[in-house]
Amino acid sequence: MSAYSQMRHGAGVALALLVLALCAVRNAPAQAIPYERPVETAPQADAIGGGYQTPAVQKPRPRDYWLQVLDVMALAALMGISVWLVLKRRSRKWLVALAIGCLGYFGFYREGCICPIGSLQNVVVAIVDPKYSIPIVVTATFVLPLVVALFFGRAFCGGVCALGAIQELVVLKPVQVPRRLDRALGWLKYVYLAIVILFAVRPALGRDFLICRFDPFVGFFRRTGTPNMLLLGGAFLVLGMFVGRPYCRYLCPYGGLLAWCTRLARRGVTITPDKELDCGLCAGACPYGAIEEMRAVGRNCLYCARCYSSCPNDGELARAKALVQLSGAAPS
Amino acid sequence: MSEDLSRRDLFSKVARGTVLATLAGGAGFLVKKANGQVVWQVNAARCINSRLGEVGVEACNLCTTECVVALSAVRAVNEYSKCGRCNICPAYFNITSAVNEEGQPSEKLCPRDAIARKPIGKADPEDPANNFYEYIIDEEKCDGCGKCVMQCKDPLGLGSITLRVRYDKCVNCNSCAISRSCPRDALMQLPVEQALLSSVLKRTG
Closest chain A residue to B139 measured between Cα atoms? Predict the structure, then answer.
């Protein structure tokens, strides 16, 4: 055996021993090894070799600006459709369809953001805080429903507002809230509006956006939320089965602004006086107490078109009657 | 009667015009001031999980628990160009767990098993310690709990993983729920383009 092969032999034995020792360590009662960082610098693609390419870090962008603009245009268009459906077509059926569509899009798809109700706070902050600015789409979201209200009343509330739509759809067996109680509770929304503004105009550190924090339905729209949030939303929906749209009528601060604008509206839902038939079916059908002494009160009217659909001289009922008369089945 | 009606009509016309003018003026003021969208982002220099020197403390998971979005809008993001691609990655493995027969810690660190590990480059099966490994975080599984971020920084790691707000998930709340509860005030609002850069994520300062 040459010295060289002896050395190799020795090296082989040593290596075998080392492997054995390592195995022993590995098979020994398992224990964490003290960790040491193996590298000081990040290896780059050329050092790694094998044709490796560093993967790109994904950077998802927020919703595209043109899509946001499209949302605002959709808001305007849907309010227009709402006005047309209620004032011209006088169709409750189609309004409900519109409400379902808007609830699906603005509510569940867009997850309740942005909405004119919440944008109220951003507008207030942007007006008082010189360092705070809001995108144009937010300003437009805030202004558009008010402009519509100045001419046609609260068309936004009818079916376009997701918070309104979700309540509109759960109205089951509405009770007429006693007029005086209804009026008193109606003041709450102005109190809430004042509180919201007070919290919004505070300096940046103490600022708070109460409308968003206490939005009762956004938890449903996002299919997640704190138990308190979901409980509050559930409570509003259950209450809403028996008291029509409690949030819109008594709490919505933006509803307060819309009500003010509606006082100046040129047109809106009206109950035409009729000498022969002042039956009052419409007043009974209105779950929101917006028909007083047989006349529609614009500022409280939430554009649901129930009055028209319940009117024997109007809407679907009237069309059915006309059809019956045309076919000659009705004695005339 | 008709005179009264026309006076009321005139009044409402004037009032409507006034309100319209006010709205238009206000909107004009706000539009002039408009400065593009701002979005929330985690300031890595403040976040406990990524801030240098914050070692030996529990990882903070408020980004997971506080966010209003299901599974949070915050994700652990691995900046691949800064990743050490270690064999034993302290963010992938729970390095305090027992060593198994393959010479690796027996437990993974991520509670949701969101990190995938695969050998890259010229892999030598005989010499795992000197191989490179790629660690890819599955954003569908990650909920931004920050455990891996806490481990992947000096002295254990190189600090390639940080918590970041993901804008395909974030709904950009006016008052971010995470920011309200973050003990280090690490959430900040930035213009979109800045918030997307990784250079805003300095570790010190």
Answer: A58
